Amino acid sequence: MNSTWIILNPNAGTNDKSLIPDIESKAKQIRTSAGQNLFKTQYAGHASEITRKAIKQGVQKIIAVGGDGTVNEIAKELVHTKTALAIIPAGSGNGLARQLYIPMNRSRAWDAAVNNTPVAIDSLEINGKAFFCTAGFGFDAFVTHEFHNMPERGFMSYAKASMGSYFNFPDQSFEILSQGKELINTKAIGITIANAGQYGNNAWISPLSDITDGKAELVILKKLPSYLLPGFLYKLFQKKLSKDRYYQTIDMPKTFTIKTTCDYMHIDGEVVKVPEGENQYRVKILPKSLNIIPGKN
Length: 297
Prior knowledge:
Blueprint: E1 4-8, H1 19-30, E2 38-40, H2 46-56, E3 61-66, H3 68-78, E4 84-89, H4 95-99, H5 106-115, E5 119-126, E6 129-131, E7 134-138, H6 139-148, H7 155-166, E8 172-178, E9 181-188, E10 190-194, E11 216-221, H8 229-237, E12 247-252, E13 255-260, E14 264-267, E15 270-273, E16 280-292
Parallel strand pairs: 1-2, 1-3, 3-4
Antiparallel strand pairs: 5-6, 5-16, 7-10, 7-14, 8-9, 8-13, 10-11, 11-12, 13-16, 14-15
Helix pairs in contact: 2-3, 6-7
């Protein structure tokens, strides 16, 4: 049996036609037995199915080749297991890969995946769904929804989706509770639960967040006047956001509950349509629950 499996999403958010043949070649180089070690996903949820099979067979490492959605599908199955995750970024945001300083260059990312030592990072659950970077309600979730409906991916498409929605997006109501006590009751354009510091594309929504500290931060974003928006975006991408009257970060307890009537949420950049009538979300922090290979040790 091969101790390392590669799970490749052939439809990842990239136009690089060399991706598939390159990964096929690299998979052959690390094959240690006659068994299959490269698996291409064919439908939503397939990566999770392959991962569960790998765990049962005692596979030691899974190399995920794809974007944030593929990585989340695989990683959520690996929580509280001994199987390590490595990432070859092939998406448009690559949030977890960037957080872990995994190179965007495929060859260097592959070298890290094959040679580096796993570290244990935190994960979170929201109503039982695992995530590893960020989850959010309100504006960022709506923008993610619009972005996924655009014909092209990338930073410019994301910026277009953001600017096209910002000024008409209404404030949302949020109530945060822990152990039955109200912690926060506010109106805001959106909130983000941050395990990692960034959404992806080096957009650092919570620069001080650390995926190994056993904590999570809640970011509350109020609508800025138009003249402050360019400065906010500059700070977002320069990792320089700090607390002010429009932007606030709060250290959260190990478990807490969010009440809101938002229509959309996102989990690691994937949009989730909120079921009708659902307005309460329980968040739980799972310290040191995922073994993952960083870009550098």
